[in-house]
Amino acid sequence: MKFRAHNVMVAGVLAVLAAAIPSSAQQYDQKFFSEMRWRCIGPFRGGRTVAITGMPHQPNLFYIAAVNGGVWKTTDTGHTWEPIFDSQDTGSVGAIAVAPSDPSIIYVGSGEGLQRPDLATGNGVYKSTDAGKTWIHLGLPDAQQITAILVDPENANRVFVAVQGHPYGPNPERGVFRSTNGGQSFEKVLYKDENIGAADLAFDPSNTQTIYAVLWAARVAPWEIRSGESFVAPGSGLFKSTDGGNTWRPLTKGLPSSDDGGLGRIGVAVAPTQPHRVYATVEAKKGAGVYRSDDSGESWSLVNSDRRIGGRGPGAMGMAVAPDNPDVIYVANTTTWKSSDAGKTFVGFRLVSGAHRAATITSGFGSAPSIRKRLHFQAIKAR
User: Fold this and answer.
1) Tell me: the pLDDT tens digits for 329-349?
2) In the chain, how many domains are there?
3) CATH code of the domain covering residue 289
4) Which CA distances in Å does 84 have to 63, 80, 117, 147, 217?
5) Model confidence over 260-301: pLDDT tens digits?
6) Per residue in 327-339, is it b (16+ CB within 10 Å) or e — as a string?
7) Which domain covers residue 356, as residue numbers?
8) H or E segment to which residue 338 belongs
9) Which residues touch 274 (CB under 8 Å, ≥6 apart)?
10) Do 242 and 209 contact (CB within 8 A), yes or no?
């Protein structure tokens, strides 16, 4: 069954497809676009949304996954949506990724991973090899919360999965997992202990042997009425591997310390055109905000300390860097924010009424000049 989105509603995914023209062609004055406004194109999802993805060379195709509403697919830029995950054992989804080298291969990580009092959990990783028509359950059944999935752009069988683990207690099936056989088996490659999970992942776009990963030590209490932070313990941090995930080392210079349990969730994004430029949104008791590194994560500087933009979590950690300008970044938090000066200043624009308590910004960019930029935004209304 398909659903057609007609009305503007405070729910669902909001998207804009900015189809850029070749750099050699005529450039247009931005005032010609000043009357354009954000509108809801659906789907009218079940619960919060934290996962969305598409294909750079198929601008009409993208997928959205709700935290308790399954996976939805559009092939006509959001005019109609089709639920493609309803036959599975769980409807809670925290991550979705399409293999860049083969758009028929989709990986889905179940369990939202937002550490909220009313969260929904999942039962591992799923895979489709026919663009969502059928699914198989791959494994990691006790993960409960999967926050991110990375697929090698040139090898659809090489996959990294960030597992947050049980929200209310310890479990060993958490951390960063790697598969080199398309999910037939998974190897735990970054792990501290049964209380520390993984919250984000990012490739170096120039070298997929270099991976950034976020570990997050947090637990929700059953009586929690706020957005996480019942228990925050030492152990959170940003890590980097330069050998494909075999070994990892912490990146700490200039970032808040986790020694006293004051460091929370981190979001990370790498500039496609300047891979040495890395951004992070950091939740911390001291020094929270947006950080920037110009040396591939070796050292960091706090560029914006406004907690409305960065550092207010634990759900609002989404960020993306423009494909053609390393100084342009987007951050989702109390609303959606844009910076054109590498994070020094931001301008906010509201996509839905109510605060953006949890949001993800996902960018799908192609190298072809005809598709220079495509940004998807999704947000939820605070309850």
Assistant:
1) 988 877 788 999 999 999 987
2) 1
3) 2.130.10.10
4) 10, 13, 27, 20, 33
5) 768 888 999 999 999 999 999 998 888 999 999 999 999 999
6) bbbbbbbbbbbbb
7) 3-381
8) strand 336-339
9) 326
10) yes
